[in-house]
Predict the 3D structure of the following.
Amino acid sequence: MIPIRLGTINIFQIVRSLGLMGSLYGLIPVYIAWGLPMAIFVLTTFIQELPRELIEVAEIDGASRLRIYYNVILPLVRPALGTVAIINLINIWNDIWFPLIFNLKESHRTLMLGVTYFFGTYQTDWTKVLVVLTLATLPIIILYILMSKQFIKGLTAGAIKG
């Protein structure tokens, strides 16, 4: 896979042609493109490991494809979805590159980009920087605590067959 930063110029041109420069909405297509390869890889692998018999039993019971998806597949894939969500959210949360390039307005800074403005040319108030960084990590820590069971299930799924 090619790192997404190598395509920055092309992504910049696409976002500009969509008229999304200078707004937070311009980051949405970028982050979707950034997260899709990993999400497809993890979810495809996870779904291929699901027992085919569960789907066949639901079909025999007369369930439609939509019902099979919502009542059989989606509950079983929830750990993988949690894992993909956490990993992508951490990547997006910590990103400075794309907000710096696409958000030209001061009012549209992301939190991590705002942290960089605490660094001075000749002097840096490290107490302010560390307080902001500590506060910036709290949402990720809280999310991990709330979703840790799903995350661990998603990482260890398929490790033991039997």
